[in-house]
């Protein structure tokens, strides 16, 4: 009886989430003058479209619920970065590095790349991607263009007020550590030592971002990747609803990342970092009785876990947490924005109050 009630209540809960996020879309002046996005396919808005890679999705049914159709976003509609931009007050989506022009760079750029990771080699078995270090190089190109436009001191002042969001790390597990047929990291490192190495490299990359003028930076933890449809279909769950060993591995990373955020806030004067819990990407909700039947995603997927081109997806997308075998639906992204606002509201208020 309880499981049946959960099945009835959770769809209603998701519809309430949608309503909440739509009602909280901010109009008027944005809370921040600019917004820069770094990361992987969870926030990629089309930077992979012209790359030689399997990890690109500029074809239907991707974008079926997005204005204008497919753009290279790995979901049916808006990514969590898009939704966050709306909540920050931006009327237009932040342009991708691939498409941005000089008239747009002052409001921000999206550098994210599907299959990319903290480590340079991550995801390269799928083809070319823009790893985080390359994204930071691209950001430096944009910073130089901004300096040329407005001058050194105005550029520095402008960049100090921007919001920087990094959503990366899951591919360093899904497309590196957990595919020993392509990478040897799992034989070189225990899960704890791998997390230590990842966060050490990540901290150096974050310092590069800080030295480019970033002062307000949000860092995402990695979600429970062992609950993704691809994981449960391809790895031994040992009777669990999820692949617990995968979730345990990323928890080492998340704990170290939280500690890093605290360290950065203590060490870097004039900067504010915040850790955002990645639970809202939907994975752990599939472990509830009401969503145990949702583990196949919303579209017919190929061997890489992406939607087969031009196939008709599920009809009730607003009640599905997963779009393909890895990525959340738009409603899951709305769920994420709601959860981080509700859980981290006090921290977020403190985080943004100094932007003015």
UniProtKB/TrEMBL annotation:
Main location: secreted
Keywords on record: Hydrolase, Lipid degradation, Lipid metabolism, Secreted, Signal
Subcellular location field: Secreted
Residues spanning the signal sequence: 1-28
GO cellular component: extracellular region
InterPro entries attached to this UniProt entry: GDSL (IPR001087), GDSL_esterase/lipase (IPR051238), SGNH_hydro_sf (IPR036514), SGNH_plant_lipase-like (IPR035669)
One GO BP: lipid catabolic process
GO MF terms, alphabetically ordered: hydrolase activity, acting on ester bonds
Record flagged with keyword Secreted: yes
Claim: Secreted is one of the keywords in the record: yes
Matching Pfam families: Lipase_GDSL
Family, as annotated: Belongs to the 'GDSL' lipolytic enzyme family.
Identification of the protein by name: FINGER PROTEIN putative-RELATED
């Amino acid at each position: 009886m309880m499981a049946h009630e959960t099945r009835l209540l959770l769809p209603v809960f998701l519809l309430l989430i949608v309503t909440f996020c739509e009602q909280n879309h901010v109009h008027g002046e944005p809370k921040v003058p600019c917004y820069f996005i770094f990361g992987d396919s969870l926030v990629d808005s089309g930077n992979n479209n012209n790359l030689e890679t399997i990890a690109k999705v500029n074809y239907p049914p991707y974008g079926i619920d997005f204005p204008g159709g497919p753009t290279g976003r790995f979901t049916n509609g808006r990514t969590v970065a898009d939704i966050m931009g709306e909540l920050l007050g931006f009327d237009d989506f932040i342009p991708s590095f691939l498409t941005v022009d000089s008239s747009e760079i002052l409001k921000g750029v999206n550098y994210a790349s599907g299959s990319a990771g903290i480590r340079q080699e991550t995801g390269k078995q799928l083809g070319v991607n823009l790893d985080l270090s390359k994204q930071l190089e691209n950001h430096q190109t944009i910073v130089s263009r901004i300096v040329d436009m407005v001058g050194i001191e105005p550029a520095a002042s402008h960049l100090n007020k921007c919001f920087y969001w990094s959503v990366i790390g899951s591919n360093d597990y899904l497309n590196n550590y957990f595919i020993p047929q392509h990478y040897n990291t799992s034989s070189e490192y225990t899960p704890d030592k791998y997390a230590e190495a990842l966060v050490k490299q990540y901290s150096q990359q974050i310092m590069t971002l800080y030295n480019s003028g970033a002062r307000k930076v949000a860092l995402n933890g990695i979600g429970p990747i062992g609950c993704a449809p691809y994981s449960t279909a391809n790895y031994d769950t040992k009777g669990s609803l999820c692949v617990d060993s995968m979730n345990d591995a990323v928890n080492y990373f998340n704990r170290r990342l939280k500690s890093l955020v605290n360290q950065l806030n203590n060490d870097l004067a004039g900067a504010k970092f915040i850790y955002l819990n990645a639970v809202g990407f939907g994975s752990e909700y599939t472990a509830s009785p009401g969503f145990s039947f949702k583990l196949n995603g919303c579209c017919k997927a190929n061997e890489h876990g992406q939607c087969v081109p031009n196939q008709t997806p599920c009809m009730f997308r607003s009640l599905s947490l997963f779009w393909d075998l890895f990525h959340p639906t738009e409603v899951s992204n709305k769920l994420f924005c709601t959860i981080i606002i509700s859980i981290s509201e006090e921290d977020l208020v403190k985080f943004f109050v100094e932007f003015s």
